[in-house]
Specification:
About 21% of the residues have low confidence. The longest helix is centred in the middle third of the chain and has 22 residues. Helix 3 packs antiparallel against helix 4, helix 3 crosses helix 5 and helix 4 packs across helix 5. Helices cover 29% and strands 14% of the residues. The chain is α+β, with helices and mostly antiparallel strands.
Length: 284
């Protein structure tokens, strides 16, 4: 039986908790966001919000200091992550108990369980720090595994806010935006951005900012004109699932196709001098 099936299947019957050996974590949780002190970041009050931890049913996790950008459930590379709360923590701990039983019965190996336990200990440490032991114990005691709805890809995108003065469509098959940058303001157009595109830009963010790129040039997905017209839209709007981010310089960032030919394009920074621009000298 696969680890994912062990951790995601709904199991009836006995729900008595089993000790899973929760040790002090020694594996760092992967971060995909970092706080910035640049002038063009979202409102100061928003950047001061507490961080949020997102965890999947296979116990992979990442945290962010911009939880207002994301919905409760976020899909990345066919894995659905949910923002951790006491109830979700209690459900994950219950699934760890099922995994422990699977080890005892020989359905999964001890090494596989140790990997799961290491991941769970990271989640437990974060939950203890942000919710407190009493709150987590209360959630564990009140959990009914039969009625709890775990995260699945079908819930991806629920709870996302729409831009101001833009009503949510009653019926649509398109994915809704995962975040808005900038969040405030009356922008007539918003370009949809996938979580994988945000993750790719996050990977080169620090280097780009150090070279003179603004957060708006990297992350903005709202504009006065429909995408791709105008200069409002940032790099994240041009990074599709089938491309990767290449060389980062002060003047441009390379966008590389993942096909065999590896087509290469450049996203230019209009805020800095470009080599093809020639300044005219005024004669005195």
């Amino acid at each position: 039986m696969s680890l994912l099936r062990i951790m995601t299947e709904q199991t009836g019957g006995d729900t008595t908790p089993i000790e899973v050996g929760e040790a002090t974590p020694n594996v760092s949780v992967k971060k995909i966001e970092r706080e910035s002190d640049k002038d063009d970041v979202p409102d100061e009050d928003e950047t001061k919000q507490e961080t949020a931890l997102y965890a999947a049913t296979n116990l992979e996790s990442w945290d962010t200091d911009r939880p207002h950008y994301y919905a409760r459930d976020v899909g990345i590379d066919d894995i659905c992550f949910r923002r951790l709360d006491p109830d979700y923590y209690a459900w994950l701990r219950y699934k760890m108990a099922l995994a422990k039983r699977a080890v005892d019965s020989g359905r999964i190996s001890s090494s596989a369980f140790e990997m799961l336990r290491a991941r769970f200990n990271d989640i437990r440490a974060w939950g203890m720090e942000h919710f407190g032991e009493g709150t987590l114990l209360s959630a564990i005691q009140s959990l009914d595994p039969k009625t709890y709805s775990p995260p699945v890809l079908e819930t991806f995108g629920q709870g996302v806010q729409y831009p101001p003065k833009q009503a949510a469509p009653e019926k649509t098959t398109r994915a809704v935006p995962q975040y808005l940058f900038p969040k405030e303001g009356d922008w007539p157009f918003t370009q949809e951005v996938s979580p994988s595109a945000v993750a790719k830009v996050n990977a080169i963010r620090d280097k780009a900012v150090s070279l003179g790129w603004s957060e708006a040039r990297l992350y903005q997905n709202r504009g006065c004109l429909r995408f791709p017209y105008g200069q409002d839209y940032g790099l994240v709007c041009f990074v599709d699932d089938n491309v990767r981010v290449g060389e980062v310089t002060r003047q441009s960032i390379e966008i590389v196709g993942t096909t065999s030919q590896e087509n290469r394009l450049r996203f230019y920074n209009p805020d800095v001098d470009q080599p093809w621009l020639r300044r005219m000298r005024r004669e005195k």
